[in-house]
Amino acid sequence: MAGFPHLRLRRLRRTEALRALVRESRVDVGDLIYPVFVVEGKGIKQEISAMPGIFRLSPDQLDAEVEEVARLKIPAVLLFGIPEQKDETGSSAYAPGGVVQQAIRTIKKSVPQLLVFTDVCLCEYTSHGHCGVVVGDQIDNDRTLPLLAKVALSHAEAGADIVAPSDMMDGRVKVIRESLDKNGFQHIPILSYAAKYASAFYGPFREAAESAPQFGDRLSYQMDYHNGREALREIEQDIAEGADIIMIKPALAYLDVIRQARNTFGCPLAAYNVSGEYAMVKAAAEQGWLDERKVVFEILTAIKRAGADIIVTYHAKDFATWMAEER
Q: In this predicted model, what pLDDT tens digit does every residue of 93-110 receive, in sequence order?
């Protein structure tokens, strides 16, 4: 290949029109999922202190939120529930009248075309804050599996479009798939949090969802952040058990894992731009230390460039608004 001066790579960077023409990676609003926190009660719209612009909403406050999401052309929301009552087994998670089940029905009545993903886990619903059943001081994997299947089935019965297990118990995709199929929900896809790391970036979420462990930590079931190859084993197992979409969480510190997954597997790949990543941008922007709009565009593009097809992000509404302004 000819070198300089015949080859001048800057030629295609000279104007915005040229740069746009040869741009390799683009983020579209249609790639995004917006997380929504739903709390039991009425008339509640409570901003989360560590996540400016993100609120806990009671089901009766959802209409305005999801109508705005739909107006911005964001195709989907991901629901997290905060119940009034918690117990050892997280029974509120699979109650027919539970807060997420109420929210699903509300959204499907208000904006039926909006895709509703639901987080399938027990941590928001258990008195101990762990993602599974606790026996002694251990999280019992196999006793947790039937409860997760009940949660997923209850969400499908309420009208969820996709269920998303995030607990990181071994075998949960298999039991959820079997339960959905047995009960006539063969058409409901599973988005698996296939490679979910034990990350310090979850701090603001745990405030939002009131899901911090009351003892110990989650290192025995969420992944060790030192490991990359292990993520491929987790993903391979979940695909074999019936996952339709796989997700890596968090995103920014794990772009290498996203790229490895993209190079290895052909199924749709999602990444979760998590609460701590969002909070850092918001805090720095509020101090005037960076340009929030430019940084968000750069972050989401990096996640897409690494190989994600779908991005779960709290920036979704801001991004969609900015994109509309550019048009």
A: 999 999 999 999 999 999
Torsion of CA 47, 49, 50, 54, to 10 degrees: 10
Average pLDDT over residues 283-293: 97
Within a domain: 95: yes
List of residues 6+ apart from 50 with CB closer than 8 A: 203, 204, 207, 208, 275, 279
196 is annotated as an active-site residue: yes
Q: How many domains does the chain have?
A: 1
Cα–Cα dist 120/64, whole Å? 24
pLDDT at residue 133, as a whole number: 86
Of 249, 282, 304, 317, which residue is the catalytic one? 249
**Closest among 206, 189, 197 to 276, alpha carbons compared:** 206
Whose CA is closest to 197, among 174, 217, 173, 175? 217
| Cβ 81 vs Cβ 93: under 8 Å | yes
For residue 165, the cross-strand partners are 120
Q: Would you say residue 61 lies in a domain? A: yes
Range of the domain at 62: 25-326
| Residue 43 falls inside a structural domain | yes
Verify whether residue 249 is a known catalytic residue: yes
Whole-Å CA distances, 253 to 26, 33, 166, 272: 20, 20, 18, 11
Residues 45-94 pLDDT 10s: 999 999 999 999 999 999 999 999 999 999 999 999 999 888 888 899 99
Q: What is the CATH number of the domain that holds 183?
A: 3.20.20.70
Of 86, 150, 196, 304, the active-site residue reads 196
114 located within any domain: yes
Single out the residue of 47, 19, 52 nearest to residue 318, CA to CA: 52
Burial class (CB in 10 A: 0-12, 13-18, 19+), 296: buried
